[in-house]
Amino acid sequence: MWSFFARDPAKDFGYEVGELVPGLEDKSIWQLHKGKKKVSGQEVSIFVFELKGGNDVLLDTAKASVKRLKTLRHPNILQYIDSLETEKVVYLVTEYVEPLNQHLELSRKEEEKRLAVSWGLFQVAKGLGFLTIDCGLSHNNICLTSVFVDKAGEWKIGGVDYMCPATEAPPAKTLPSLDRYNPPELSGPSSGRAKPGPKWARDSWGLGCLIWEAFNGPLPKASALESPGKIPKPLSSAYSQLTNSTCNSRPSPNDIVTRCRSAGGFLKNSFVDTMLFIEEIQIKDSTAKNRFFAGLPAMMDNFPPNVCKYKILPQLINSFEFGDAGSSVLAPLFKIGRMLDADEYQKKIVPCVVKLFSSKDRATRARLLQQVDQFMDHLSPEVVNQEVFPHVVQGFSDTNPTIREQTVKAMVHMAPKLNYHNLNEEVMKHFARLQARDDQGGIRTNTTVCLGKIACHLHPQTRQKVLIVAFARAMRDPFHPSRMAAILALSATQGYFTLRDCASKVLPALCALTMDPEKTVRDHAFKAIKGFLGKTGEGV
Q1: Is 82 contained in some domain?
Q2: What does DSSP assign to residue 98?
Q3: Which sign does the torsion angle of CA 404, 410, 412, 417 carry?
Q4: Cβ contact 94:44 at 8 Å
Q5: What is the pLDDT of residue 367?
Q6: How many domains does the chain have?
Q7: pTM
Q8: In the chain, how many H helices and how many E strands?
Q9: What is the CATH number of the domain that holds 64?
């Protein structure tokens, strides 16, 4: 009985506390750890406060912070998941994030970083607008160490340890290192007599501090704010207004967003525009979506990879599965696919590819076949033979010449994964028909070219039975590029022919082309004959 009451409740905590994440150090009462949910393995972040030296004030601050975060729900505020409080420790479990200062230290291209910061500042400003104007709260601690970043590059407001109603005086900060972020009305000699400003005044100052740190690094002292340092010129005016010593002159976070989103503003760029479109994509019409997806691949070159993988990609997949985006999502989908590791590709891209192959939309099927080289390596032979090929093979008989031609070309990339039946029987049957009967000379030519390229994947008996017959047929084609393709394919595959076949079947067929009306065909025929004569001469 007594052992039950004496049991440490932390042992029943449903999360594993992992390694310490650097970045908070002396500017937070919390230590940040990586964590996992024991049951599901879900990645989380765990903020840990340990009571040391009997400082009950810090313990009360930690508990109040948990209580406050628990009640706040907003896309730009750190998401509370769970918590545990004991006499010695407080655990606060949130969505998986990393400290902003650590995120900004990651090496990346200058333009990529500028775009990431512009979107992050937009999000923090929107979050502060929600807190100060909608909720009537003052955060009182906006700085580099109170903002966190999730996997999708979303900036989240945390560090709510000193939050209070905007009409009340803020609580005293328990860490001296945070005093440098206090606005003049709270830190100057006349701070006690200062009249309260607008309800957003204190957090607008904090937003100014965050802007300074986003471009210059951790703030060494309050006076450093007097020099903008590396803050970009399009943002310098807004920064000066936010750090105005007169609290009544500071604009609200929402005003800053409006001003900076105007033409020429720091927040008016392709990245922020893209992020806002993505967030509103469910209410966009199909024309706007298709136009957006068409222009997206070119813009993504300067986008942070984590944003592409964890914010844009889920929306692309969602638009494909539940919307009317169709083939327009393919180009950005495959471009992001190149950023994924093998496991992520299997989970996120392959199911879409398989589903796309069953589409009745010709534009989708054509685009998919044109880009087959970008994803075929990621598909297993089982998936290719059982789920993809049954749909692809229908393209050989499609009434649209483009679909037929792209289906033929796709075999170059698909052949290594096809089983005996699909490659040596099904594909060869369709190739023979296309070579002999298709009314498009280009398709007949490409069939011959493709056959030469996939010959190495054919069964030896199939090669002996099919290749010479197919190439000889192509050498009689009235379309001269088809005859040329047959000569080149014969030369490329001569290693598969016996000396007897070379002498009795290949050379006679080539000799007939030495009288071809097209000079290029004659020239290639003579060159091929020379090569085959050399082969037969060596074998005698």
Answers
A1: yes
A2: E
A3: negative
A4: yes
A5: 87
A6: 1
A7: 0.83
A8: 27, 10
A9: 3.30.200.20
In a domain, 68, yes or no: yes
pLDDT of residue 321: 76
* Residue 449 lies inside a defined structural domain of this protein: no
Name every residue whose Cβ is closer than 8 Å to that of residue 361 and which is 6 or more positions away in sequence: 326, 327
Q: In this structure, is the dihedral angle defined by the CA atoms of residues 260, 266, 267 and 270, taken in order, positive or negative?
A: positive
SS3 call for 163: coil
**Residue 325 near residue 281, CB atoms below 8 Å:** no
Angle CA 376–378–379, to nearest 5: 70
Vertex 56 angle, CA 54 and 61, to 5°: 135
The pLDDT value recorded for residue 168 is 92
pLDDT of residue 128: 98
**Smallest Cα–Cα separation from 128: which of 120, 118, 119, 138?**
138
CA distance 302 to 118: 13
From the list 537, 524, 444, 540, the residue with the least C-alpha distance to 492 is 524
506 with 477: CB under 8 angstroms?
no
Measuring CA to CA, how many Å separate 380 from each of 172, 317, 377, 425, 504? 61, 21, 8, 20, 41
For the chain, the straight-line distance linking the first and the last C-alpha, in angstroms and rounded, comes to: 98
Reference 376, options 411, 348, 340; nearest CA is: 411
Q: Are 459 and 427 in contact (CB under 8 A)?
A: no
Residue whose entry in the numeric block shows the structure tokens 């009967």 = 437
List beta partners, residue 16: 36
- For the chain of 540 residues, list the mean pLDDT of each consecutive stretch of 10: 50 90 91 96 96 81 95 97 92 97 83 94 98 97 97 97 94 92 79 70 98 96 96 97 95 97 96 95 87 92 92 88 75 92 90 86 87 91 95 94 96 97 98 96 97 96 95 95 95 91 91 93 93 74
Assign 3-state DSSP to the chain and report helix, strand, coil percentages, each to 5.
Answer: 65, 10, 25
Give the H or E element holding residue 391.
Answer: helix 389-392
> CA 101, 105, 109 angle in degrees (round to 5)?
130
pLDDT at 7: 53
Q: What's the length of the chain?
A: 540
Alpha helices in 168-285 (DSSP H): 184-187, 201-216, 233-242, 253-260, 270-279
**Cα-to-chain-centroid distance, residue 313:** 5
Written as six digits, the tokens of 54 are: 């009997």
Tally the C-alpha atoms within 13 A of residue 155's C-alpha that lie toward its C-beta.
Answer: 29
d(CA 170, CA 146): 16
Parent domain of 17: 8-96
Question: What is Dmax (Cα atoms) for the chain?
Answer: 110
In a domain, 343, yes or no: no
Q: Is residue 211 within 8 Å of residue 232, measured between CB atoms?
A: no
> How far is C-alpha 535 from the chain's CA centre?
52
Which residues are within 8 A (CB) of 478 and not within 5 positions of it... i.e. 6 or more apart? Answer: 441
